[in-house]
Selenium-binding protein
Amino acid sequence: MANHNGSHQGCCKTGPGYATPLEAMSGPRETLIYVTAVYTGTGVQKPDYLATVDIDPNSPTYSKVIHRLPVPYLGDELHHTGWNSCSSCHGDPSAERRFLVVPGLVSGRIYVVDTKTNPRAPSLHKVVEPSDIIEKTGLAFPHTSHCLASGDVMVSCLGDKDGNAKGNGFLLLDSDFNVKGRWEKPGHSPTFGYDFWYQPRHNTMISTSWGAPAAFTKGFNLQHVSDGLYGRHLHVYNWPGGELRQTLDLGDSGLLPLEASSLL
């Protein structure tokens, strides 16, 4: 699964991003996007890579891949990327949208990519190793990353090192991408993990459900749904406190609640 992010830095006087969605709509268009490219299921034994795509209509390389940044290892399965800083930090003039945080779903690694030094040819800045994440949090299978107004980065993780969904939760990295701990309070982890998004104005975060890594990494098997290895719930959290306030059961019709960015 690929995700893209643009290169525009927003208003440099007040911090990255925009104060409102309306302001973002009236801002300058992106000229570059970064897209994860994965080899999972292809039989190709090459590292996944981050592709830089030129989307400036006035550029001679418009709509072309102008750079590929391969990661150092095989089999990561790069997933939902996010910035180190975004509109959540709009009021902080010291914040800068510079680093792209790229989780490796299967390997458990998290790559940090520098897009500022050379936006058209980004470079690898840091690798957060799965052993460090597991040792300090018990989490594995990182999926979605989002920046927080505090300067931390939050990453949803879908299970423990053995692929059990009961071990999932939310990883916090500090502004230097060191493992800080778990975001949710003890005893408040969701039954299954996937995507998440927060709305500070309502002091609320919603996370969604997918499946146990031990199941989906082997390919989809309908029997696993009957076996209870896939989720069917939305989880409503207090933000930023990390307490699970409500779990919404969407029923046993096989509906999987996946992307969360449009829920709030």
Residues 1-12 have pLDDT under 50 and may be disordered.
